[in-house]
Structure formats: C-alpha cells, structure tokens
Design a protein that fits this description.
Strand 3 and strand 4 (about 165) form a beta hairpin. The chain has helices at about 20-35, 35-40, 55-65, 75-80, 80-85, 95-105, 110-125, and strands at about 140-145, 145-150, 160, 165, 170-180, 180. By secondary structure, the protein is α+β, with helices and mostly antiparallel strands. The radius of gyration is 26 Å and the shape is extended. The chain is built from 7 helices and 6 strands; from the N terminus they run αααααααββββββ. The strands form 2 sheets. It has a 3-stranded antiparallel sheet, with no helix packed on it. It folds into 2 domains: about 20-125, no CATH class; about 135-180, no CATH class.
Length: about 190
C-alpha cells in the first residue's frame, strides 16, 4: 500500500548526472591500459591530428555502442550530454559526419591493425590478477531428463530414443568449491 508523506525537493546548481555511469570506469580502464596510444601507433589513418587522433574516433564509436547507440547519428546525443563528456574527460568528440568519414578510410588491413592494437594490451589487462581466478571456483552439474506427457501435439514435445513423448528439461545446478569439497558432493 502506498502512503504519502511530506516530500522535499532540492535543486542544486552544479548537478551533473548521466545514465551511462559505467562509461567513466570503462574509459579509465582503457586509458590505464594505454589503448589510445596503441591505436594511434598501429592505425595511422589521419595525416593531420586537428583536433582528433585515431584513438578519439575509435573510442567515440565504441563508447557510442556501449551507451546504447545503434548508428552514427546516436553520437549526436552523446555530444550534448555534459555528464557523459565529463565522464570521458572530453571537451569535444567527433560528430556523426566526421565519424562516418573516419569509418570510410578503413581498409581490411586497417581493421587487422586495430585488432592487433587491442590484442596488444590484453596481457596487461590480466597482469596482477591472482591465480585464484584461473582455478575452478564453481562446478556446474548439467543433466537432461525426459518429463513424460500424454499430449503429443503440445508445443515443444518430442519423442525420446526410447519412444516416450515428453519434454526434455535441462537441469543445471551450481556447486561452489570450498577447500577441495563441492558442497553437497564428495571431493573427486
């Protein structure tokens, strides 16, 4: 049941908010890994860098997708979102027309070089991660069975190799690894 009580609203002059809050963390990780520098080194498409570098264009396109964009025109909404611009530390980002011009410069070899630049920073991403992340932390037990039914014309019903009409639900259970013993099961 809903009740109503006194509500107070305050409006601050310096409030900056965006629904793409995670983009700041993504951008910080990208910068920490040195991906922009790698992109600029490996994908030399621009002769003059005024005001954008290759990494600015690539990250602009990637961040557009991360923020729900499905086409180049969606970049325009990000250009006018001051909270987004603050989150990525940009005063200006390429507009959709400039982004389209950049995309048209790509050849197959440039796409391969961009992938190489991205792959070059991957080892740095995993450095410092504990070996515990590489070991098993959980066990999945998956099992299928036949749930017999008498309705042969029901949607999803099929015949098993034993001639039984029914559904085949997949049962998946999670057993968490604790000190060599999977909860509920003996150690193997």
């Amino acid at each position: 049941m809903f009740g109503s009580g006194p509500v107070a609203y305050e409006i601050g002059a310096n409030v900056d908010a965006t629904c793409y809050g995670g983009i700041a963390a993504v951008h910080r990780l990208v910068a920490k890994l040195g991906l922009p520098d790698r992109i600029n080194e490996h994908v030399p498409l621009l002769k003059v860098h005024l005001p954008y570098h290759e990494s600015d264009h690539v990250l602009n396109l990637a961040y557009n997708v991360l923020c729900g964009g499905t086409r180049l025109e969606d970049i325009e909404r990000l250009r006018h979102d001051s909270a987004y611009m603050n989150a990525v530390g940009a005063d200006l980002i390429p507009d959709p027309t400039t982004a389209g011009d950049f995309c048209r410069r790509f050849a197959a070899v440039d796409v391969a070089e961009l992938l190489e630049a991205i792959n070059a920073v991957r080892p740095k991403l995993w450095q410092g991660r504990g070996k515990d992340l590489l070991g098993p932390v959980a066990y999945l037990d998956a099992d299928g069975t036949i749930a017999p039914t008498s309705g042969q014309r029901k949607q999803g019903v099929d015949m098993s190799y034993k001639g039984i009409w029914g559904y085949a639900p997949l049962v998946v259970s999670l057993g968490q690894h604790e000190g060599g013993v999977v909860r509920g099961q003996p150690a193997r």
